Amino acid sequence: MSDSQLDYDRIRQNVDQELARARRQSKYGMFLGHVFMAVVFTIVIWGTALTYPPFASMMQDKKSPVLVLLLLPTILAFVGVMFHGFTAFAETGLVNRARRDRAVLNGIKDEFSRVGFDLDRKEKPKRQSSVSLSDDGELIENEPMQQQGKAS
Length: 152
Fold this sequence. Notes:
Elements: H1 8-51, H2 53-60, H3 66-90, H4 97-115, E1 130-133, E2 139-142, H5 145-151
Antiparallel strand pairs: 1-2
Helix pairs in contact: 1-2, 1-3, 1-4
């Protein structure tokens, strides 16, 4: 097999597509998890404050700091979500090296299998049983190297 049979542009394109997909999934997953946690956190805080009678009565008092103590964590949670969104969706060019190496290897394996070369072969060809011709022209099965060493 020669290098001219391999389509390096196709390998590069497949790798780039796989990396883009993995990056998108990772960014969206982490961002949605952050949004979910901020919403749950806010619901728990406000639900507790509105249903617990001492907090509910304190919220009626205009001089009470309870409202500020509820608004501050809520605002901070959603500011964190906002910054996470900025970094997750504006990030460009920073690629996880291990993920890229794995994608390159998978792309090369795909291209080799397309060409017909088997990379998943477990045993070296010289270790497989083989045959040779005797002086008479008959096929003789050669024994593996380990068995020949034990017989001597």
